[in-house]
Amino acid sequence: MRLVVPPGAAQTEALQKAIDDCYLSGGGEVCLAAGEHHTGGFRLRSRVTLHLLSGAKLIGSRDPEDYFAYRRDAIEPLEKEEISDIPWSRQSADQDPSCSILRIPGSRWNNALIRLLHARDAAIVGDEGSVIDGMDPYDEAGEENYRGPHGIDAHDCENIRFSGYTIQNTGNWAHAVFHSRNLVFENITVLAGHDGIHVTSCANIQIDRCNFYTGDDCIAGFANQNVTVQGCEINTACSAFRFGGTNVFVEDCHIFGPARHVFRGSLTKEEKIAGAHPAKDGKHRFNMLSVFTYYADFSFPIPLEPRNIVFSRCRVENADRFLHFNYSGNELWQKNRPLSEICFQKIDAQGITMPLTAYGDEQNPVRIAIRDSRIAFAPEADVPLMHLANCERVELVNLTILRNGASPWILAWGDAVTLETKNIHGPGVERLCITKAQEPFSCRAI
């Protein structure tokens, strides 16, 4: 079945009916014609493709109460345990490590413009010039007391394809996907908003030729396995990757700052309510925090050892940090199962301003390799190359390292660090050695 929905206002029920009719007939395609389609939240179902034709613009409501229609679903009703009215609060997020509202698909936190629940063989695709616009909804009862619904939220799904569209100004993450398998994200552009693609407890993920210009993390999540990221443009006011997983391969990406879009957490309350997009004025945050920040909290279990994360042939410009793994215990989002192995190879990085940090687990020390790469620190950055602790092996091979100042090359906490170097070039590399830190470890959380 193929149904075409014309543009118009207040289309939530009409669009949901087209999807339901398509699903009940065995599947097919619901097409949005060119023009503006104004809706609240709706649910996409198994074997249905939502197709935004060229020039179609799906525009979300700015009222957060317009995103609960899935709770009245008579075709595939949610189970009682899948619905929760527990509100998000900073206290519960900090003190309740289970963060149960993330795992319950029918929680307010999981509201989204497009919902996929227990869906199989579905897709969201867009032709050139198609746009999904979340319109920066403000929700006093949302995360951090301002974040509104996600752009797209999926739970327990399989064989889902996201392709071709631009998604912008979402109230929270552009794509929030949990407990799902066989996911393809291709040729998507994410503008402003919060996290670009956030996948947790997922497997077999392909992110190909996507463009991220986000206010928050570009690619995020943890407890994932078999992830490939290829050929992406990655620009952020937070971390390019805040990620954890097993068998994660990032190849041929351009990762750069400063961000084109503001970190929305730096806006005033009035600016958040208005959906403001301020220019770079020195009052708001646009700097890129990190190329890779490890991520592992207790909102989901981590059954596999986080390892075999490999970055290859990537170009990096103007990030505060190159690597940020801090298992010392002072970061809320890095306290679950620790990272055991990460490798960077054929990386060209410039404009780094802070040390590479790798503070591993005492019982499971981390292994790090940086090979065939060039790392240039910003001229004003008189900082060590690395801060290390509990590292089973740090391998530095075939590197050019450009840094100024008199700071030690490598500061280490404790004795559990093994360093292997070969063919290192750059000013002062003859003095490259480990210096034992005299002060307690301190690292700004990001």
Count of discrete alpha- or pi-helical segments spanning 4 or more residues: 4
What does the overall shape look like?
Answer: elongated
Give the strand content: over 45%
Oligomer: single chain
Radius of gyration: 22 Å
Describe what this molecule looks like in 3D.
The chain has an eight-stranded parallel barrel. Strands 7-8 form a two-stranded parallel ribbon. The protein is built from four helices and 35 strands. The chain has 446 residues and is mostly beta strands. The protein is elongated. α1 links the parallel β1 and β2.
Provide a compact summary of the structure.
The protein has 446 residues and is mainly beta. The chain has helices spanning 12-24, 90-95, 100-103, 269-274, and strands spanning 2-5, 28-32, 35-39, 42-44, 48-52, 56-60, 83-84, 106-107, 112-117, 120-126, 131-133, 150-155, 158-163, 166-168, 175-178, 181-186, 189-191, 197-200, 203-208, 211-214, 219-230, 233-236, 239-251, 254-256, 288-294, 307-312, 315-317, 319-326, 341-345, 348-352, 356-359, 366-377, 386-402, 410-425, 434-436.
